Amino acid sequence: MTKPYALTCKLGFECITCSRCGGTGNYSWNAINGTRCFKCRGAKIARTKRGAAAANVYAESLKVPAGSLVVGDTMQCEDYLAGKRWFAPIVSIVATERDGKVVLDITTDHPKAGKSGLVTWPEYLVRKGWLTVDKTAKLQLALDYQDTLTATGTPRKRGA
Prior knowledge:
By secondary structure, the chain is α+β, with helices and mostly antiparallel strands. The chain folds into two domains: 7-62 and 132-146, no CATH class; 64-127, Roll (SH3 type barrels), CATH 2.30.30. The chain is 18% helix and 38% strand. It has helices at 49-61, 132-146, and strands spanning 7-8, 14-17, 26-30, 34-36, 45-47, 63-65, 74-79, 84-98, 101-110, 114-120, 125-127. It has a four-stranded antiparallel beta sheet, with no helix packed on it. Strands 1-2-5 form a three-stranded antiparallel beta sheet. Strands 3-4 form a two-stranded antiparallel ribbon. The longest helix has 15 residues, at 132-146. The model has no long low-confidence stretch (mean pLDDT 89).
């Protein structure tokens, strides 16, 4: 049940007009970002507490333990300094033991970004590349979850 004032974001999560910039996408000027609003990141709309809680559930549902990945899967890679993300296919996974713990060395190969690697524990959660059908099902579960939340983003104690 959505409120009459609520908008929907691109994926369908509940949003409202940004209260900081008034829906312009601009706020005060700074040397790094110009006049872009920090709350909505220039999008002119911001998620409500319900929408944010459901979006977090959706984002977490797209993550899997690194130990469950196999060669041929795709996973999200990041360049933290440049602030860029991309999906790349996994070309090798090597498990080694360091200091009594199993460590995975995952190598990906992207046509534009080149080879990149991730050294992590098997239980570390990584964003996996899903098929559209799977993502649609996970999105629908998150949107259904959104309908069970109160305006403060917490689960209802009674049925709606």
